[in-house]
Design goal:
Chain lengths: 354, 340
């Protein structure tokens, strides 16, 4: 933006001038204090004595330095810390690949599906000399990403299937799916998690049954699928019928029509709403702490709540993970933007002979 | 049916009927697993918390370590399961943990209503109030119409309501899910008072108040909070092991058996010390353990006094006085059942 247009935007008329001046005054008033607290007087080394001497006049980022591994990786055994790091990188890499917009459809699907699937054995260990790590020790950012990634990877195909099912001509199927979706949308995620973790184990023999992580993941997949299916259904309803007719006229089978014509367009169209749900899910994973899975917020609690020396500096630690969440959410939003780039109708070549 | 057949049929019926759970199955499970599953908190200073290296420390943690040492011979063979306050009882009932050592108050509804057995009291706590001095409140009875910050999911909230009703005053609880949030709210002036267990209040005032001198802990305790480890019902043998290990830790202090002196005291002439250390009489066989179980427990974590000092008392950041938690012959109410 040129200087001239900036001036017009900010000081074009009396109201804008007033608002701009107000915002500038607010910045001038708050920025120096913020800067002083967050940077100038802050303590960056993991030195609890120095932090206590500061007495909160400056931020104690040392708490992040001291607790970084615990906050980011939770209770995962330190000697195998590279496993969760690699798992997290795989999942993020998969998302980046899926959104690059340069991959064919099948590759996009595998970018979303494969990394979470690979993350399970990687985190679990028990092969190639790796120590077996029970799921209860998984935690921190990799767990947040795994729950989001695996949740989406499971929920998206299921959501698409439900969306088609609800358009089916079978009354019973339609009624069942509608009831299921309404049920899943009618209860809060916390309630679903509580049921998965408190009720289910009482049905199984002592100590037996499904692992907590799996129970929670199933609850998340079912919950997210209900929301995603409605988004996809909305996209399907808005799809112009003419294209289906045209496909039929060209000899496409119904399956081919959906696979090559309808779904690619519908999914692009609803990508912003899907991203919305993905962002919501990313943040909702923090709810799993109530059932004793320690993802990012949970492992922060474990790291700090009982530490007499570092607990007074929890604000800095929370700001740190708030920044992580912000980066994660912006990343998902950006990815959705990239993915929708192809949604705009491409300029068509003029039909020949015209 | 001839009597012989009837007998046979009865025997067959007996053989086919589901066997009653035989005592000691928890102990067998722990031994075959090689690990004690211990339910702890998600972080309570002095009771159970993981340090930066992920090592668990605290009074409740030491109780589990002592039991692991007594049962498995190694205090480090423990699987730590941090549990939220909402989830702790389900985890115990469903068999996810063998013992719940998570600063849990022993009360009738929890003992009888939740299908638990509390194995003893490891810390006598009580609920108190922290107020800003500028509010000029010097007694909890003056908290009329006060807003009190409190954390949800524990007995704290209910005690506050009970106290208000008993005193005939109106108190507005301001409830928070997260500890940090409740504390921040109090120190930023959202509430006139903050309430939680007294063991935590002194530390909060000293370490987390913007200026400790502006705040004071009110003299009244409004509830009794005897904290102790719990096991699930239906396994008396395991219950006995936990109960007597807790008693052994307390008895060790009374007998003067410390972590450092466990081995040298084996030559002691005192019959109680000899019994405790398994030199003469074998007490362990009554519990299904060997004769050195109690000696191993003390060797692993020290006696109750040492555990207290390390985690809550003079050697800890909390610097709590022994108070009620001193031995019965030292002005407290700690009274180990006799190990004989």
């Amino acid at each position: 933006m040129s200087f001239g247009s900036l001036r017009r935007t900010l000081f074009g008329d009396p109201l804008n001038t007033l608002l701009s001046l107000g915002v500038l005054a607010l910045l001038a008033w708050s920025l120096p204090a913020l800067l002083r607290w967050a940077v100038l007087e802050a303590q960056f080394a993991a030195d609890v004595g120095a932090c206590e001497a500061l007495d909160h006049r400056g931020a104690c980022w040392g708490v992040v330095a001291e607790k970084a591994r615990f906050i980011l990786l939770g209770r995962y055994p330190a000697e195998q810390a590279w496993c969760p790091v690699l798992a997290a990188l795989l999942i993020i890499g998969g998302w980046l690949g899926a959104a690059s917009g340069r991959l064919p459809g099948a590759a996009v699907a595998s970018c979303l599906l494969l990394p979470p699937l690979l993350a399970f054995p990687l985190l679990g260990g028990g092969f190639a000399g790796l120590e077996t790590v029970p799921t209860e020790l998984w935690g921190g950012l990799p767990l947040t990403l795994l729950l989001t990634g695996a949740g989406l990877a499971g929920a998206l195909p299921l959501g698409i299937a439900i969306a088609y099912g609800r358009r089916s001509s079978l009354h019973l199927l339609r009624a069942l799916l509608t009831a299921g979706v309404e049920l899943a949308r009618g209860i809060p995620l916390v309630a679903a998690l509580f049921m998965a973790s408190f009720l289910l184990p009482l049905f199984f023999p002592e100590g037996g049954g499904l692992d907590m992580l799996w129970r929670v993941l199933i609850a998340i997949v079912l919950f997210a699928a209900a929301y995603l299916s409605e988004i996809v259904r909305g996209g399907l309803q808005a799809f112009p019928a003419g294209q289906r007719d045209a496909a039929a006229a060209l000899g496409f089978s119904p399956w081919q029509t959906e696979r090559w014509i309808v779904l690619p367009q519908v999914l692009r169209q609803v990508a912003p709403s899907l991203a919305n749900s993905a962002i919501a899910l990313f943040k909702d994973t923090s709810l799993v702490t109530v059932v004793s899975l320690y993802e990012l917020t949970g492992s922060l609690g474990l790291a700090l709540a009982g530490d007499a020396q570092w607990r007074p500096f929890y604000l800095e630690a929370w700001l740190f993970i708030a920044a992580i969440y912000w980066i994660g959410c912006s990343l998902i939003a950006r990815l959705a933007q990239l993915a929708t780039r192809g949604a705009a109708p491409r300029p068509q070549a003029d039909p020949p002979g015209n | 049916m001839p009597p012989a057949f009837r007998l046979l049929a009865a025997a067959a019926a007996l053989a086919l009927a589901p066997l009653p759970a035989f005592a000691g199955k928890t102990l067998d499970a722990i031994k075959s697993r090689g690990q004690l599953a211990c339910g702890v908190s998600t972080g309570v200073i002095g009771f159970s918390a993981a340090d930066s290296q992920g090592q668990w420390k605290g009074l409740d943690v030491d109780v589990c370590k002592a039991i692991a040492a007594a049962v498995l011979g190694d205090p480090n063979k423990v699987r730590w399961v941090p549990l939220s306050s909402q989830q702790r009882f389900t985890a115990l009932q469903s068999g996810e943990v063998d013992i719940l050592s998570r600063n849990t108050t022993w009360s009738l509804t929890r003992d009888a209503g939740q299908g638990l057995h509390f194995a003893g009291v490891t810390y006598y706590d009580g609920q108190g109030f922290l107020v800003a001095k500028k509010t000029k409140v010097s007694s909890a009875k003056q908290l009329r119409n006060a807003e009190v910050c409190v954390q949800s999911g524990t007995t704290t909230e209910k005690n506050l309501a009970d106290f208000a009703r008993a005193q005939g005053i109106k108190i507005k609880p301001v409830v928070f899910d997260k500890f940090e949030a409740s504390l921040k709210a109090f120190f930023s002036g959202r509430c006139q008072a903050y309430t939680t267990d007294a063991s935590a209040l002194a530390f909060i005032r000293a370490k987390e108040a913007p200026n400790p001198d502006d705040y004071q802990v009110l003299p009244e305790l409004i509830s009794k909070e005897p904290l102790g480890p719990a096991v699930r019902r239906g396994d008396d043998e395991w219950f006995a092991i936990v109960k007597w290990t807790v008693n052994a830790l307390i008895e060790a202090e009374e007998l003067g058996i410390t972590q450092a002196r466990v081995d040298s005291l084996k030559s002691s002439a005192d019959p109680s010390v000899q019994r405790f250390l398994g030199v003469g009489e074998d007490l362990g066989k009554n519990l299904g353990l060997d004769r050195n179980w109690a000696a191993r427990a003390v060797k692993a974590v020290g006696n109750y006094g040492e555990i207290f000092n390390r985690n809550l008392g003079a050697e800890s950041p909390l610097k709590l006085p022994r108070g009620l938690n001193a031995q019965w012959n030292k002005g407290g109410i700690l009274y180990a059942l006799p190990l004989r």
